[in-house]
Each structure stands twice: as C-alpha cells, then as structure tokens.
Amino acid sequence: MKKIIALALSVLMLTSALAGCGNETKPGGTSGAGTTQPGSQGTANLEPIKIGSIQDTSGGASLAGQPNQWGVEYAVRWINENGGINGRPVELYSRDCQNDAEVGVTNYRELVDEAGVCAIIGPPLSNPASAWVELATEDKIPIVGHFMDEVCTTDPDTGEAYPYMFLAEPSCSVQSYILAEYGMNELNVKTVATLYNTSNAYAVAHEGPFVNYVEANGGQVLARETFGWTDTDYTAQAQKIAALNPDAVLLCDYCNQMVTAYDNLRDAGYTGYILGANTMYPPFNSLVKNEIKDCYFVQNYDLSAGTIADLLDIQMKETGTDYPTSNVGFGWDACMVLFNAMKQAKDPTDGEEVRQILENNTKDVESAGGAKITIDPSTHRPTRDMGMYIASYDEDVNVDCLVYMTSDYNS
Amino acid sequence: MSNYQISLVMLACISVITVSGVFTMTSLAGMFSLGQAAYMSICAYLTFCLARYLSLPIWITAVIGLAASGLIALIISLPTLKLRRDYFALLSVGFGQMVSSIVILLGDWTNASIGFSKIPKVKGLVWIILGITALIVFMVRNLKYSRFGRMCIALKTDEIAARSFGIDVYRLKVKIYVLASVIAGVGGICYGLRNRVISPDAFDWSLSAEMQILLFFGGTNSLTGSVISAAGLKVLPEFLKGVKLFGVNLQDCKTIIYCLLIIVVINFRTQGIMGEQELDTAALRRFAGRFTRGKGGES
Amino acid sequence: MTFQLFISGVSLGSVYALIAVGFAIVFSILKFSNFAHGGMISACAYIGYFFLSAFETPPPFVVTVIFTTICGVLLALLVDTAAYRRIRRKQAPNIYYFLASITIAILIEQILSVFFGKNLYGYPAIFKSTTFNIGSIRFSSVDTLILVVSLVILAVLLYVINGTRIGLAIRTVAISPSTSRLMGINSDVIIIVVFAIAGALAGISGVLLGMKYSVYPSLGPSMMIKGFIASVIGGLGSLGGAIIAAIALGIVEIFLTYWIGSLSAPIVLFGIMLVFLAVRPEGISGRFAKDKV
Q: E-strand spans in A11-128?
C-alpha cells in the first residue's frame, strides 16, 4: 500500500514537472482573453500586450502579496473588458518572488527574456525591487510598483530618479511625514519613541523619516527600540518605553508583529498615543487583546467608498478573504498608472517611449481611492497631491478615516 | 543563450559553490553547521562595502573579504570545535544570528535590511562564475582523493580511531572549517554579483539549512551527486511556473513540491540520489556496459 | 523595575519552555532536535482556531485544547509515518531525522501560508484583563497560564516517565533501542508513543501561543531556534533541564534587550552560550546524551 502511495506521489510530481516543460509559454494568472472590440480603431494591431507582475504570493509577505496580485489580475481583466489598450488586449504573466531578491532576479529575467513582457508591475517590497534597478535600465523595461522605500526610485547618492522605476503610491517617507505631522499638530505630541523591526525594510524605511521629521520640528525622540524576526515578544522594549512615558509611540512592522507590539506596550502600562504605519488596518482590530484606544495610523484609501470599495467587494467574495485590505488597491493603482501611459504611447510595447510618458505625462490618474496620481518627473514618485488618510478605530473598533492629509515637508 | 538561461546557469553555479563548501565540511569531516550562510554574508558585505567606500577594484576587496572570512572562521572554530558536534551545530545557529545582527548594527555602511545595492557590474560574469565553480569543484574533488581527504574521512568515520592513528583531529577540523568558510565566502560574492543586492535576511539560517538539505539529497558521500542536486533542485522551481494543477497555481506551491521531493528521497533513498557513486568516466563506462548487455545486467 | 523585568523574563521563558519540552521529549528517545515541532505548533494553532470558529457559541476553552491535542497527536503520527518511519527502519544516522524534520517544518509552514495564509486570525480573549497586578508587579494573564501549563505538563511527563511501566519502557529505549528489543520491549511502539506525546504538546502549545499572539504560518517556526537553544543548553533530552534553560534564556534575553537593545543581544547571547557550553558541556541538567549530529 505504501509503495503504491509513494509511486503515485512520484508520478504526480513527474507529470507536474513535465507539464511545466510543456506549458511554459502559457500565461500565469488570468489570461487576457477578454472581450476586445475588433472594430475600435481601423488598422488595429490586435496582438496582445504582455505585461508581467512579480509579487510575493508564498513568502513572508504573502499576506500583502496575495491581495496585491489579485488587484493586478483584476485590473487586467477590467482593461480587457473595457477595450484594452487602444483595442489591444493585455496579457498578464504573474510570478512569485517569495520576498527574495535572488528569486526576484530570476523572475525578472524569465519575464523579460522568455515571456517577452514590455513592462512589469512590481511588489510592495524593496529588496527585490532594488535588485531590478539596473537590469530595468539595461533592458528598457519600465517597472511600476509599490516599493515604497525611496531608494528604489531615486539614487540615494545623487538624488536622481532611476529612469525605469516608478512608484504609484506615497513613499514610506511621505507616509511617515504625514503621520508625524498629524501627531505633532493635532495630537500635540512633543516627545516620541519608536518600536520597529530592524530586519524589515518596510519598517526601517518608515521609522527613519518619522524620527527625522519629529527632530526637525522641535520634537524629542526619547528612545528608538528595535526587534527582529526571531523575537516574538517585545516586553523589555515596551517596559523601557513605558518608563520613559513619551507622548506617542510609533510602531511599524507587518500586522501580526504590530499586534504583539501594541499588546506589549499596553500591558507594560503605557497609556499614551500609539501611531502606526498602514499595516495597522484590519485585522489589527480583531487580533489585539487589549482595548484599542488613542491609536492613529496612516491609511492609503478610505476603504468604504469609491472604486476601492467595489474592488474589495469582488475580491473578498472571489478569494474568501475575511476583511478588506488596501493592497488590492495597490495592484490596481500600479496597473492604472501603467495603462494610462501605454494608452498614450504610439507603441505601447516600446519600453523607452512608455518610460518617457510615465515620467512626463502621468497626470491625474485616478487611484482606487479617488486621489489623483501625478508622477513627479524628478523623483518618479507621486507628487504631493497624493496624500494619505489618518485613520483611527471608533468605539466599535471599526476603521474611521479622520482626515485626508498631504505633506509638504522635505528633509 | 538568453539572459534568462544565463541567469539560471549562474543561479545553479552559486548553489554548487556553496554546496561544495558544505561538502568539504559535512561529507569529508562530518561537521554539521547551520551557519555557513553567515560566511557568505560576511564576505559579500566586506567585498562590496570596501569596494564602494574605498573605491578599490572588486578583485582586491574580494581577496580581503575571503581572507577575512577565513580569519573569522579560524577565530570561531578555535573554541567551538573543541565542543561536541551538536553544540557546534547549535553555536553555528547563534553565530548566524550574530552576524546578521552585526550587519544591521552597521547599518550606516551596510544599509541594514533595506539591502546594499551599490554592487559594481562585472562583464562576462557568467564565464567568471562558471570558471570559479569548475575550479572549486575540481579542488574539492582533488581534496577528497588526497591524503588530507582520506584523513578527513577517517576522522568522520571514527574520531577516536583516527586519533589513535596519529591524526591531529582538532587541527584537521579547524583547517576544514576554514576552507569550507572561504568557499562559502566565494559563494557569497557570486551571489552579490548576480543579484546586485545583498540583505542580511537573505543569509539567514534557512539558507544554511537548505545547503545541508541539498547536500544530503544528492548523497553525502558523492561530490557529483551533491553538485547535481545543488544545481538541479535550485532550478527545478522554474519548471513549475505558469502551470496549474487542479486549479492550484503550482508556482505558489514550488516550495511544497520541493519539500515533498526531499522527504521522498530521504525516506526511500536515504543515501541520496547518487549514494556513494561518483559520476566519472569509469562509472559511465560501467553504465554503458550494463546498457549494452541489456536488462540482464540488472539484478 | 528590575524585579518587573525578571517577572517578564520568566513569562517569556515559559513560552520557550513550552516549545523546549516538545523538543526534549523527542530528543530523549531519538537523539535529534525535531524542528518539525514548530510547524506542528502552527498547524495546531490553525486547527484550534477553526474548531473554535466552527461553533455559533464558542465551546469552552478546555474542549478546544482537548480537540487540538487529539489533532496534534494524529498529525504527529502522520508526520512520523510519512517522514521518519523509513529512516528508522534503515537505522540511518540521526542527521537524516534532523534534515527530514527541518523539511517538514518548512513544508507545513508553506502549506499554511499558501492555502490558509489569506487571513490572519486571532483567538477570542479568555481573560477579561490581559494583565493583573500583585503589589506593584504586573503579570501577564496568558503568560501565567502558559507557565502553569508548562509546569503541569512537566509534572505529568515526569510522572509518566518515572512512575509508569510505559515510562520505564521509554527510558529503556532511550538508552538503547536494540537492547530494549531484546528485553521484549517493542521499541517501535514506544517511539510512536513518544511522537504522540510530542504531538499532544504541540496541540496544547498551538492553542496557547495562538492565544498569546495571533495565528499565522510562521508562529511556531519563528520560535524553533529558541526552543532548540533551550533544549540543547538544558542538557540534551532532559525535560527539567529544558524548562530551566528555557526560563533562563527568557530572563537573559529580556535583560539583554533592556540594557543593550535587541540588536546587540544575539552577539552577547552567542558569547554566553559559547562560555556556558565550554565550562559545563553536560548542560544544566548534568545528563549526558550521545552526539546527535
């Protein structure tokens, strides 16, 4: 019996491997077989436009990567149902980078060299993205994504934008400035402490600018406490912070660590404001054991209204997700920015032309949340018009978007 | 050859280099470490940071990096190799965590977890990496058949017996450990050159564990087996892209398939796919002989 | 403050202890660190959560723990059959168990994150307040529960191992599986019993850790390293030693983090481990086991 099972297992594996060899050219996610309207423009070239999407769907950040990937797939479905790019359908090739730069490079090479994509939607992760900076320039492949860390879009030495990297949401720095500004102006915070994961680029890229803003605007940073992936408990850090008793504490990491950090802080007797990065959205409220109060965080969209609400409605039904996540909108936004540029291009498959348009002619693209995305040619990031909501949890621990803010601060 | 295929070749080569390093340590001397990725990290960071901040050519800093990882391996091995083997394995995990902490602590230079991406571009990288891989595999092969290698195998089989034959077990272990760490360092440099970004969590203990698993998958006592498994298993996930089975995208399941394959091999062919066999001309001739004689040759 | 930190250290240590006991019980017989234990803890945390949420009115806490424990036992037996039994038949070196267990840990984590990773889950709180005070010292409710459970588990296990016939058999197999077979002990059955005990521990730990933290795929695996350290320092295979080492590790970690920060802590911890193992190679419990790798 066992031998039969073992045999069956190995046969299954062999066939899957073989199937892999055979089907290599098939598109990964939803293929672009949508309803293209043949008669839309006279001499229509109906060859599909191939784009790639690289997201983390099975690695450490898959909780964000899976909705992100869905957003991309849905945007492609949507554009194909709405006439494609000037009549040409879009074909999507999706790859999983497992939050690993090494796999990311392989993914990139395969999409560009084998699948022949002409643009890539990138993940909200900065490690794989910074590996593509030079590759994209060499191959002339525009990459639009959510690598919020500013080093992915501009060279930290010269401040110049990398020619082929584009960000479609406010960078980590902008998000932190907005949060810090709200804290200092509205909540009257004078002293802060931070508690963040030094092993997570996402957290590090938020914490630095936050501290920078507070110090530059007359606030005082009492402590910068850290933890890592293998730490499961932050009690010591929390007690240190509670003893210093700052007006506000900034937490940043992925959602489950935020939950532990929040609980540890409250357990340690800290009663001040707790500010958070945009990972403090649900399910944070359903996971935290302590009472949620005096808790403010940045939020990309008001999830209850606009395109994002419709997207989430469909996504939660299709994938069985229990709660809304902003990441669906990230995938959608990046696609909209890219499609907008491709529509304006004479040849949407020409990376260089699309790049030019992305840089200079990306104006007022409507994001899923209703904000207008205009790419700043000097930074390749959205201009100040794209801001963030400051959100909080109300008495019934539902998200309450308090105010939409933009930031003019620049270090 | 497309750039994609070239990048796969490099991927496989880097895996072969690191697994060869582990081979010298585990297969020859019987030491089990979960911290070899830390040496990749040390060497890669030293090489690329020095190249950037001192504006030195990369081959000079590579030599410095390799020397430094050798030296650190020596310092670490002196106390730890005196301990029992399982304590050594434990300390190797602690060492790995220590190194990634240090990389983050030196964030002003290493750019911490955001990743260090100012890595110079090297022309004809694939040939260099292929050359290095061939050199290292050749070296390890010679080592295995040398007097030194036989001493190591004696030590692995029975430490007390080896000692009674006059082999200085401790010194031998230290030598092997330093050598393995330098090879890991070479792997680290190649990793950086291929991927153009290095980050501390790319070199955590799970990478070290992966190297050990690849080694045992191929066959601990077979260098060719480990080389084949290091290259093959690393590239395997590429064949699963874009394939759907029962409505599940196999791409997401690549690690699952990979793990199942390893479990099956460890269970059904415990000695690894190649066992004790080496794939060389003699083996090929044997195989060809069996083939021409037909099925009768098989028992 | 120092005393408060000490209490927090004990709390954290009790979490590590829960994991270290699971490591140690398997180690005592099979002489390898069962990394798959971390994966099983995650799986059990999910099982417990889904069990709880399957009812309109949540069943009592104890029912959930019992159900999850049973599932943990079944899971452990499944893992044993699928990954370890053949290695045992072939009498392969322990290193193969070790590799198989790491692979199983990665496998379980991946299955959870690919098929169940769309949502994060949290157990409903069972305590009204997350902390309680005795004097000016603050105790965490869940941590205290975990500590009590760890100690109860330890007491039960010590009784089973030292006071029952099956415990005698376990001790015999631990010393020598082949000799014990000559004495008429079915060592295969004993090994399965030990895996079942480890599975039960994973079931209990899964629910407790799920309650303390939230439920996510790397819940157990992220703590494996700590459990590994504690079980090795504690004296390989010694249950009491593992618990003492785990609590000591928790205390040391809390103080190091408080004084020098979480980044420098691993550096000092490495030094402490090195010195400790060099000075006292037999571990805290003073019991010597054979080399495992």
A: 49-55, 90-96, 120-121
Closest CA to B44 of B19, B59, B67, B62: B62
Q: How many CB atoms lie within 10 A of CB B2?
A: 12
Locate C92 and state its tokens.
């392969």
Non-local CB neighbours of A367 within 8 Å, separated by 6+ positions: A168, A169, A301, A329, A332, A333, A336, A373, A386
Sign for the CA dihedral angle at A268, A271, A272, A276 comes to positive
Mean pLDDT by 10 residues, chain B (299 residues): 89 95 90 92 95 92 95 93 84 91 91 86 92 95 90 86 88 93 96 92 88 88 91 85 70 84 87 77 76 52
Assess A230–C contact: CB distance below 8 Å, yes or no.
Answer: yes
Q: Which amino acid is at B217?
A: F
Burial B187-225 (b: 16+ CB within 10 A, else e): bbbbbbbbbbbbbbbbbbbbbbbbbbbbbbbbbbbbbbb
Q: What is the pTM of this model?
A: 0.88
pLDDT tens-digit map of C171-227: 888 888 888 888 888 888 999 999 999 999 999 999 999 988 889 998 888 888 888
Q: Do A26 and B2 touch (CB under 8 A)?
A: no
Instruction: Give Dmax over CA atoms of chain C in angstroms.
Output: 59
In a mutational test of the A interface, the residue from C2, C10, C89, C120 whose CB has the highest number of chain A CBs within 10 Å is C120
Give the Cα separation of B246 and B250 in Å (integer).
9
Six-digit token string for C137:
């010292």
The residue among B41, B106, B108, B197 with the most chain A CBs within 10 A of its CB, best to mutate, is B197
